[in-house]
Amino acid sequence: MIDLQQTGNGLEGYGLLAAQLEALLADERDFVANAAQFSAFLYTQLEDLNWAGFYLNKHEQLVLGPFQGQVACVRIPFGKGVCGAAASSLQTQRVEDVHAFPGHIACDSASNSELVVPLVKEGRLIGVLDLDSPKLSRFTEVDQRGIENLAAIFLRLTEC
Ligand code: SME
């Protein structure tokens, strides 16, 4: 069992989180198990989150996957909201104020900023990783790079 401690949000913090995630997923390749672990890991290790989890690409729609936080909307069409924008553009969406994002889908009224990373493995869109925060501008460029790296570790260590 690894010892998980709060690591802060700097580059150094993300280096430590990357090592912890590698250890957490080292012995398991099952998708649901690893996705559930990864969302719990993010939710407990990153500060100021009110939701962390997955939407999965099923027949060109995003369908709710393993997550931590309040109950959420189940299906999101590609192109709709922040998650749909990440899925259709294949670009990370880092939104400082979700209320200013056209088409934002408000699952939890506490959310004010959001980071959504598209998950692509061997050229195939698996889904998106969605993080929500009650703080405006919660996610910096350092957070984006750090969380994209964690998502890459998850994809490498998980059968998709
Ligand atoms: N806000 C997201 C929807 C998912 S919830 O935040 C969990 C969006 O606009 O895509």
TrEMBL record:
Gene3D superfamilies: 3.30.450.40. Pfam families: GAF_2 (PF13185). It comes from the Bacteria. GO terms for molecular function: L-methionine-(R)-S-oxide reductase activity. One of its GO terms (cellular component) is cytosol. Residues 46-152 form the GAF domain. Belongs to the free Met sulfoxide reductase family. This is GAF domain-containing protein. It comes from Pseudomonas turukhanskensis. The lineage of its organism: Bacteria, Pseudomonadati, Pseudomonadota, Gammaproteobacteria, Pseudomonadales.
